[in-house]
Amino acid sequence: MGKTLAEKILSEKSGQDACAGDIVIAKVDVAAFQDGTGPLGVRQLQKMNINKVKAAKSIFFLDHAAPSPRKELSNDHMLLREFSKKSGAILSEIGDGVIHQRLVESFVKPGDVVIGGDSHTCTAGALGAFATGMGSTDVAIGMVIGKTWFKVPETFRVEINGKFQSGVYSKDLILYLIGMIGADGATYKALEFGGETIEKMSMESRFVLSNMAVEAGAKVGLIASDKTTREYLKSCGRLKEWKAQIPDIDAKYEKIIKIDVSKIEPQIAFPHTVDNTRPISAAKGKKVDQVFIGTCTNGRIEDLEIAAKILKGKKRAFDTRLIVVPASREIYLNAMKLGLLKIFVQAGAIIMGPGCGPCVGVHEGVLGDGEVCLSTANRNFKGRMGNPEAFVYLASPATAAYSAIKGKISDPREMIKKAKKEKIMVNTGKKAKGNR
Amino acid sequence: MLIRGKVYKFASNINTDVIYPGKYLSITTDREEMAKHCFEAAYPEFLENAKKGDIIVSGKNFGCGSSREQAATCLKYFGIGAVVAESFARIFYRNAINLALPVIIAPGISQKIEHNDTIEINLETGIIKNMRTTEIIKANRLPPFILKIINDGGLIPYLKKKLKNSNIIRRIQ
What we know:
The complex is a heterodimer of chains A (436) and B (173). The radius of gyration of chain A is 21 Å and the shape is globular. Chain A is built from 15 helices and 18 strands. Chain A has 436 residues and is α/β, with parallel strands linked by helices. In chain A, helix 6 (170-181) packs parallel to helix 8 (203-211) and helix 11 (301-311) crosses helix 13. A five-stranded parallel β-sheet of chain A has the order 4-3-2-5-6, with helices on both faces. Chain B has one domain: Aconitase, domain 4 (Alpha-Beta Barrel). Classes of the chains: A alpha/beta (436), B alpha/beta (173).
């Protein structure tokens, strides 16, 4: 019988015929921690006097509090730096970027098993890797033994077809899906994204889908490794690490969910749950105090390009702050080369160092009582951005950028329509170009 | 193992940011300090009203959100006896087991138990008894190896015991 992507990867890494429901012990290729979960993991290992790591790649990322805003967190950073040195683990310093972006840029390859002390570790599933978040003790043990146990998940295949309207992106698609199946709609399951829309989708847009799989409760968010994956790894200087990783045609899925993206409008997740998702018309006109463009969900170059296109020559609304955070040093440099940073600064934005930025409320951009933030992040839980009295709405970078200009939640399709109209009016003879 | 306690009830989709706010993530060893921040931001009344030995009963998807182990640790250190829910988010579920905090999946439990009821859970059989109504509720039984981890006091003590006679620990040291 055919296998799903999850079954195929876990079969290879466990050396047994892994089928949904089985419990297997699999080899760990990448074990990763960030600075919020790493210290607990390291202290667990110190309790056992363990100072060596065994997973092929063991990495500590300093990103959630980077640079550190408090002495307690600075001491945690010291602990992780020291342990990395002693144990032979790799250290990703402050300013290098968010764990999940760094993992896909530099460390994970198709077919890998990746465990991370962060729920959004599932991001790397877009490369065709079995990547999942775990607690600190689980990751610590996996890191030093080089193995961990998994229950092989059943798979929901998400078949995505159709062409996005201009102004609608993969972020809108994933918010729509989570709204449809709910925050526990895929608990314990693997989501496997496929279909014609995915085949044509850029790697960066694919990461958005896998990143948010956990918001529906999924263990992994997998996408087959194909030509697009190959091109991406090539652009990262890792062409040799590419391999095809596809599910069998006769794989057995617990459920098949079909979505026609041409019918999807820009989506907004209302406070305080990610599945509280509605079409943008329901939020239109909501006043916004802070707009945040960045994170492991939407802080990549494609996202910054989309936002810059909208913000070029414009200014943020007087009453609306705009924070932009490139997800990694590499992206920061690229944005610099492409002139995007200048556009943001001229539009009245503040640009912060690569990392998690204000997403988790540990540092940078904590909201005031009753304030509203429109964010491109993946979570809007009560207190998420450091204040339980604040309200976080989630959207795509296009919606975020356009709303920053307007000072209230606004539909980016308006601007695109207007631009098209103007182009026709000046009769340039050129066909108006929609957003990618 | 029999666990008996008073019920502290929550709705569905209780996430880890609500259980343990991100700003306290730097606390990893101070048990008392961690216990002081359970549900602090979203349900501050929990810290006043809940007692050691209480059992949390919740709807679907308890512990969704971030992978922070502190969400399970703070409940353990507070003295929560067990968490019973219609379903759990998987990372929290695994974290709780690793810390020997009993987690029991009991479909339909929210309708059968009220806040402040006293319940008794038999971990081996998965039978939950509501002492007020005397109703018996059948929960999912924990697999034997998971019960073993809980009985040994969590993953680290379990592994220590298991590996005592093998040389794996010595090899990786």
